[in-house]
Amino acid sequence: MATDANQPTVPQVTMTLSAIAATAATPRPSGETLAEQSARIILGINQQLADISLATEGTWVLSWLGVSPGNANMAYLARNTDGSNSFAVVIRGTVGSVTDLLEDLDVGTVVPFNLVGMPSSVSVSKGAMKAFTQVVTMSTAGVTLAQALNTALSQAEPNPTVYVTGHSLGGCIATMVAPYLQTLTWPKGKPNFELHTFAAPTAGGADFAAYVDSLDWQANERHFNINDMVPQAWNNLEVTKQWYLTPGPAADDDVKAVISALVALPGPNVYVQPGKDDPLNDSYDPVDPNLVKASLQDFMGQVAFQHANSTYLGLLGAPDVQSGPVVTVVTPVGTTGAPVEIVGSGFGEGVMVDFGTVPISKEYVLRDDVIVVWAPEGVGVVDIRATNNLGTSPAVPRGQFSYGGPAAVVATGISPDTGRAGDQVQINGVNFASDCQVYFGDNLAELVDYAPEQLLVNAPKPTIGVGKSATVNVTVLSNGYSSPATPADEFTYLEWHRP
Is the previous residue joined to 286 through a cis bond, with omega within 30 degrees of 0? Predict the structure, then answer.
């Protein structure tokens, strides 16, 4: 890879390759085989690698891709065509929530990490070992990752560079895959290995970290956002109870209870991070300003933001990768065969639409950021989601379709979002019926004025006690629905006093 001052840095390139690994990570809601999803992932990764606006500059090409059974793990091999004689082994990170990631690593049990040529066995978590085993044994057309890399290096010029990289769980597993690759025999001699991890939780103990660091690396770097909870696992999670600084969200009792549960997961096992530390910032920046209230919802939302691929690319000064489709609002009510308008972004030709787990026919009208489809057979309330080669749109409150009605109730915002008992609060939303009731936490508010998209209420007295927060969700009950809780409907009581 070129090292000219005007060229992207190695961390910018490897983080971009790691972010691309998340392409089409989740199956289509209506279901698809692993082969169908793999084909979609390949198309999406090729689309992103060809993007000259990214730090990868359109010079990398996909050589091999493998997906483990159940889509639990994915890795790919890429080759740089810019004449730098470089290759990249890229391992996908978690596709679930942050807490799911940390719990799935099964750090309460350690097992030996035995590689050929190791002076002695070292210990890693059982969960990390399971993921590592899946990555190095999964094959495509009978070809494993190591075999694909062997073939690629046999056709390369001497003295190639191999980057091993990943974000989140991908970075954790990269710290195991990279040493494994160093133990193998290569056709033209051992290549120059570089290990670059981003936002990675640690895989093993002090003996594991010492072993990784003792190997012959061209570079061995651990890149992390200092405000990301995940790379604090599993040796420094306790510190996150003191997060986040102004403007928040400060950890409340609920947050601290969750963190305490996570801190206890390793039991007697002591974990240590390998690699040279590379903090990407030195202050609480960037921050998602929409997630700053002292609640578990906002705290975990801020954690997800700080952990996101896009945040890491931003901290590195690299362009963000292409995003998948997004659904923002749909026609909320209809019957089988009725036209439904879907408004969003990132659709493009070939987009597929699902009503819950039911796919629509291929007949639809696409114009810019709007899709018009005809509702398939169904009952109840379903999420409408769009899928293309880059991924699947997340389920959103205003993306719900109700067969036969009534339409789902959604609160989209409140004003003001702080105050005292008795203060008037305006609630904006959709599909409010005249029977609506409004709750602040578990307390019923007095309804002052009603309109189908706007309510005015007097804030009720809060419930103060152990386990109760000054920040509560405002919930609207109407037509048999309760509005889903989101950061947009949080209200914080001022002058809060615990008993």
Answer: yes
